[in-house]
Amino acid sequence: MKDKNTIRTAISVVPIAVLVAVLAVNISIFGSDSILGASQVALLFAAGVCIALSMWVFRTPWKSFENAIKENVSDVTTAILILFLIGAISGTWTASGVIPTFIYYGVKLISPRFFLLTACLICSLISIMIGSSWTTIATIGVALLGIGRAEGFSDGMIAGAIISGAYFGDKMSPLSDTTVMASSLNGVPLFDHIKYMLVTTVPSITITLILFGIIGLSHGGGDASQIATYTDVLGGKFNISPWLLIVPVVTGVMIAKKMPALTVLAISSVLASATALIAQPHIISEIGRTVVDAPTWKVLFGGTMRSIYDSVSIETGNVDVDNLVASRGMLGMLNTVYLIICAMCFGGAMKASGMIRHLASLMIPLTRRRTGLVASTVFTGTALNGIVSDQYLAIILTSNLFKDLYEKEGYENRLLSRAVEDSASITSPLYPWSSCGMTQATILSVPTLTYLPFCFFNIISPMMSIFIASIGYRIVSPKKDKTD
Fold first, then answer.
1. Which residues make Cβ contacts (< 8 Å) with residue 343, sequence separation at least 6?
2. Pairing with 7, which of 64, 135, 449, 468 sits 20 to 30 Å away (CA)?
3. What is the pLDDT of residues 271-303, one digit of tens each?
4. How confident is the model over 420-444, as pLDDT tens digits?
5. Strand partners, 312
6. Alpha helices (H) in 388-453, listed in sequence order
7. Contact in structure between 276 and 325 (CB atoms under 8 Å)
């Protein structure tokens, strides 16, 4: 029986090895363009390998795979709709002048030396308030990216600061679905879970802010004349006004009232579209005339529709500023949706085959001590983000795999829920093929591997979880205290 389990575990590694190998070749050939289809094919191919092996060796019926894939794809339906609406917000907030206004005032008010630190803090606070890293990155994150570019920072640094802050806030917010999921799955009261996470999260974000502060202080800042050029071009092309910030303020109020994300994003898009017609009719006309050459009302209607659904480039006469105010629209999200669906197919195949369970057995020998137990949990949560390509699945599977083991060893459930959050929730945007990694890369137009080295919080959090476990700070074992 032991030999049989060993064989099954060895076979379970094959689809993962195939996926990593094919993705590595894809990235070496296509680079960041692998999202256009190569990464999706890799996921489907690996899913096919998993299904073939499982049906042949494990005798798993096809219906099990069909049901698991159907369930997985069904689970991300809301996320897909949110993605499309985020694309709509990208277009309407740009065409209405909201994002150009953020950039215009941002480059004037935020000191270049403290920009990265400030960007991280702003995203942290907003994400805590709204409980969504995706929404934070898609709104204020996009505006901060434009400001950072104007001030001379690299895309990787800016995106790293934005993502670090957004995921810190998402992790610590009682409104976050991943936070609620991690606490509820492990039977820990929500606010007890959040308070316990402070032990690992506060040191992680502190180190992150220090690092961004050091990088900022060593940065010479953007060329003053170049920044002046940006503001002059934006001011000349758009009707810049503080009144335009009513759109994000209203959006924030709706979020604070805990309205559903789909409702908030939809209303925000409509509000921004109306604002564009009032404040930037010349921009809407410019966009509309690329679609139809017709009466004014048709031009305005066509321009408004196109700003919602299409990738739009607004010509300002300055190439750099053109890049700042380019938007993706709903169509710009299609490749990410394509990737998410393929990732769910792979995750469903791995789940239905039982290969996830066999892979988890590899961790058992490492769980005999406190540090090994937490390290195994962190490693599993981090690895599952790459295996199943979805943080929700990673949270669910990691919690299910280790819950009985923590109870058996006598450790509190909140230790497990914290380890899950420190890994499965935080490392999801670090994988180029995961739903979070490709979503953030798409929203910010920055390849995952470009921003990854600067996602300090996302990298530090898993290591901090293991470190705190090694010193045993605030870790209680009712039955026994297994130290290292």
1. 43, 388, 389, 390, 433, 434, 435
2. 64
3. 999 999 999 998 888 888 766 567 778 888 988
4. 999 988 898 998 877 788 778 888 8
5. 327
6. 391-409, 413-420, 435-444, 448-451
7. no
